């Protein structure tokens, strides 16, 4: 069994209380690693370490170019260790090795991009309306930033937060999900090897009630970046608001995936399958609501079901596997519960609807790819995030109805649609209430393009040039060039 320690203040340590917890392989159900069960004292130590590193020592004395060099070095180390990190994540969260390898080989780009951006953050000289005053602005780091990551893509979603935070000159405390802590601890070894000063990056493992609350409420923490559920995001927002901390929250989604009658049908079918069954549906941007124009509804749905039936479930470490297990037992029960809810609400189950019968999969946390037709927009299966391989299909008759259904949820993280009509592309992409809209593609991401949600799907944006501003604050400096001060009782 792999025994891990936390990374705090440049040292590898057990939890203060000496407690640990187990992590299991979602495919086999077997315990494979032991993780420190950190508590409030460990979170406090990590925050104090990051605060010290931000206020003294070598980190604040580094030039922006120096920070960029360290980030690019970290990117190189991730690239060199991509296969090892990918294997660790598969053992921890059960996602496909093909997807994890793609992610880990792509993640270095975040550190290259923001490493290159570090010394290009500029202030401005303002031609102020005071003739005897010189005014300029400068962008400064916030201080200690906390990143809380979920279990579906730990290192990718950490990169969204860590790369811009360090580029801007902040220090960082990472808190991975208790279900998938191993890859972040493996990643910390690379941060140490890259040569970042002590305390700049820390990892605390444990549970939200102790570690999470301390990290989000501590006086030395200036910013919290979180990816996860709406409910947890709301709690973090409330705790942060008490001390006016900045937050970036990337929360849930119930993304509409719309197919118009003029779409390239085979491409759209592939896109729909990828949108919901890739990653076993365990992604906030999953296209979990399929909206199909009625005139092609039956034909299109037949093709989707036929392709979904061919999905190969199995060991996520096999490159032949197309659908892996669900990451956690609680999530497995949640998905099965929503399947029952959909059946009770009157939706017709065309495919799947339970756990697979294959005895080779009996030890793992598997759910069959599931498709429901006859879904109405007001049903819970169309309104609430399932976070699993479950597709709800809704017909529509016009562009206006498609837009109405697409926007008829509390969420607005992502959306996608398929059409060959350029007028429709412009009008529908404008009308849909979502932070990302894909046209004739789905699940495309880039370190250069902002990602974030409308409505209950979150606050702020990650990735791209805009994201680094979320880790900075602007200072205005005014210098008087006047030879004497006029009436001191009058504002100038």
From TrEMBL:
<dbReference type="InterPro" id="IPR016161">
    <property type="entry name" value="Ald_DH/histidinol_DH"/>
</dbReference>
<keyword id="KW-0558">Oxidation</keyword>
<keyword id="KW-0521">NADP</keyword>
<keyword id="KW-0560">Oxidoreductase</keyword>
<dbReference type="InterPro" id="IPR015590">
    <property type="entry name" value="Aldehyde_DH_dom"/>
</dbReference>
<keyword id="KW-0479">Metal-binding</keyword>
<keyword id="KW-0630">Potassium</keyword>
<feature type="domain" description="Aldehyde dehydrogenase">
    <location>
        <begin position="13"/>
        <end position="477"/>
    </location>
</feature>
<dbReference type="InterPro" id="IPR016163">
    <property type="entry name" value="Ald_DH_C"/>
</dbReference>
<comment type="similarity">
    <text>Belongs to the aldehyde dehydrogenase family.</text>
</comment>
<dbReference type="Pfam" id="PF00171">
    <property type="entry name" value="Aldedh"/>
</dbReference>
<dbReference type="GO" id="GO:0046872">
    <property type="term" value="F:metal ion binding"/>
</dbReference>
<dbReference type="GO" id="GO:0016620">
    <property type="term" value="F:oxidoreductase activity, acting on the aldehyde or oxo group of donors, NAD or NADP as acceptor"/>
</dbReference>
<feature type="active site">
    <location>
        <position position="250"/>
    </location>
</feature>
<dbReference type="InterPro" id="IPR016162">
    <property type="entry name" value="Ald_DH_N"/>
</dbReference>
<dbReference type="InterPro" id="IPR016160">
    <property type="entry name" value="Ald_DH_CS_CYS"/>
</dbReference>
<protein>
    <submittedName>
        <fullName>Aldehyde dehydrogenase</fullName>
    </submittedName>
</protein>
<dbReference type="InterPro" id="IPR029510">
    <property type="entry name" value="Ald_DH_CS_GLU"/>
</dbReference>
């Amino acid at each position: 069994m792999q025994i891990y320690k936390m990374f705090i203040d440049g040292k590898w340590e057990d939890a203060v209380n000496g407690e640990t917890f187990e992590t299991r392989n979602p495919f086999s159900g077997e315990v494979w690693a032991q993780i420190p069960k950190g508590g409030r004292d460990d979170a406090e130590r990590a925050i104090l370490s990051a605060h010290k590193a931000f206020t003294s020592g070598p980190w604040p004395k580094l030039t922006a170019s120096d920070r960029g060099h360290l980030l690019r070095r970290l990117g190189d180390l991730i690239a060199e260790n991509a296969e090892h990190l990918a294997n660790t994540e598969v053992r921890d969260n059960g996602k496909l090795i093909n997807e994890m390898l793609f992610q880990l080989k792509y993640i270095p780009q975040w550190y290259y991009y923001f490493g290159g951006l570090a010394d290009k953050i500029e202030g401005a000289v303002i031609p102020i309306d005071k003739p005897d005053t010189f005014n300029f602005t400068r962008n400064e780091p916030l201080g200690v930033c906390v990143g809380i990551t979920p279990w579906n893509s730990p290192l990718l979603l950490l990169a969204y937060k860590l790369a811009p935070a360090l580029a801007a000159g902040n220090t960082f405390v990472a808190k991975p999900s208790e279900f998938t802590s191993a890859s972040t601890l493996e990643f910390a070894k690379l941060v140490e090897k890259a040569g970042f000063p002590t305390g700049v990056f820390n990892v605390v493992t444990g549970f939200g009630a102790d570690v999470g609350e301390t990290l989000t409420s501590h006086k030395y923490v200036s910013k919290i970046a979180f990816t996860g559920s709406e409910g947890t995001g709301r709690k973090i927002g409330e705790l942060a608001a008490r001390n006016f901390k900045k937050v970036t929250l990337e929360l849930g989604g119930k993304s509409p995936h719309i197919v118009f009658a003029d779409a390239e049908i085979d491409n759209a079918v592939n896109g729909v399958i990828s949108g919901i069954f890739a990653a076993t549906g365990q992604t906030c941007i999953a296209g979990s609501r399929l909206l199909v124009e009625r005139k092609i509804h039956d034909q299109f749905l037949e093709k989707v079901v036929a392709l979904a039936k061919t999905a190969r479930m199995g060991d996520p470490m096999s490159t032949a596997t197309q659908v892996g297990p669900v990451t956690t037992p609680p999530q497995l029960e949640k998905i099965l519960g929503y399947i029952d809810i959909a059946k009770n609400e009157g939706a017709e189950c065309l495919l799947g609807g339970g756990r697979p019968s294959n005895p080779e999969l009996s030890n793992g946390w598997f759910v069959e790819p599931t498709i429901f037709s006859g879904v109405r927009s007001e049903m819970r299966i169309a309104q609430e995030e399932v976070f699993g391989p479950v597709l709800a299909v809704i017909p529509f008759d016009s562009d206006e109805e498609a837009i109405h259904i697409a926007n008829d949820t509390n969420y607005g993280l992502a959306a996608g649609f398929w059409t060959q009509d350029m007028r429709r592309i412009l009008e529908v992409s404008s009308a849909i209430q979502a932070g990302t809209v894909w046209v004739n593609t789905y699940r495309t991401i880039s370190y250069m393009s902002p990602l974030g949600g409308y409505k209950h799907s979150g606050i702020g944006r990650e990735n791209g040039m805009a994201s680094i501003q979320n880790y900075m604050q602007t200072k205005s400096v005014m210098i008087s060039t006047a030879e004497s001060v006029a009436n001191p009782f009058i504002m100038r």
